[in-house]
Input
Amino acid sequence: MSDTVLVTGASGFVGAAVARAALKRGFKVRALMRPTASHANIAGLEIETVAGDMRDVSSMTRALQGTRYFFHVAADYRLWAPDPSEIERNNLMGARATMQAALAAGVERVVYTSSVAALKPGSGEPVDETSRHSPQSVIGAYKRSKLVAEREVERLIADSRLPAVIVAPSTPIGPRDIKPTPTGRIIVEAAKGKMPGFVDTGLNLVHVDDVAEGHMLALERGRIGHNYILGGTDMSLQAMLGEIARLSGRRPPKLKMPRAPLFPLAFMAEAVARMTGKEPFLTADALRMSRYRMFFSSAKAKTELGYMARPPVEALADALAWFGANGYLA
Output
C-alpha cells in the first residue's frame, strides 16, 4: 500500500493546513472535495482531488481506496444556521460515514479532528481532555454537533476497533482563513476598527500551521483511542483585540460591555440573518458561551507527541498579513 493520505476539508482553513503539512512529510495527498468547493487554498499544490461528500459512505469508500492514512478534518463549522439541527446532522453523519468507510477500506490509521468545543470549560483555569461535556451541558448547535460526532468516533474505536486518534484544536488563526471562520471575522472587524468594545471572555489561540503539525504528530505518535488538545496560548478577548490594534496601528478598544444589553442586538441580527441567509456576526449562543473563558491545556500533546505552538502574536500577525494581502481589510 502506498503512502497516500486522504484529507477531507482540504478546501477549508484547517484542512488546507493539514494537506500542506502532509505534503511536507513526503506523503502523496488526496483531497475529498465537494464539487462546488473552492480550490483556492490548495492551488498549485501536488494534490489529487476527488469529488465526494463526507456524509456519503460510497463516495468516501471510493476516495479511501489505496490510501494508507486518513485525516478527517471536514466539518460544518457554523455557529449559527437557520435550522440549527442541520449542523448537528451534518457533523454526526460525516463522522459516521467517514469512519465506517475507513473501516471498510482497511485504513492503517485515522486522525479524527474534533474540537475543544466538545470539552467543558472551567471557571477560568485551563482544562484538559478529561473535562468532558454532556449533551445537556453543551451550548449551541456547533458544539453539540462536535460532541455527538466525537462520541460516535469513540464508539467505533471501542466497538469496531477503528484505529483512530482524536485531536482537538482550540481556536486556530493564521493564513488561508478563506471563509473566514468566526474568529477570523473578529480579527478582520477588529483590524478595520469596527470592534469598539469587548465582553469579559477568553480564548486559546493557536497558529493553524501548528495545529496541522499536531495532526502529523498524532498520526506518528498518538495512542489509538486517545484525545489530544492542540492549543496555544490562553488570552482574554481584551488582550487579543489589543494585540490586533497594535499590529494594525489602531487604538485598542477600552469599552468593557455587559452581556445582557447585547442579547436584543443578537436576536435582531439572527432575525435579519434568517431573511438574508447570511450568518450573523453576533449570536445569542455566542453570548452565552462568552460567559466562560475557553482556556485549555495542551500538556498531554506536548508530553506524548512532542507538540509545540508558537506565540499568539505571530499567529495574529500571519493572519493579518494574509487578510490584508487578500483584500479582506480594504
User: Anything to note?
Assistant: The first helix runs from residue 13 to 24. The domain at 4-178+205-235+295-313 is CATH 3.40.50.720 (Rossmann fold). The mean pLDDT is 92. The first strand starts at residue 4 and ends at 8.
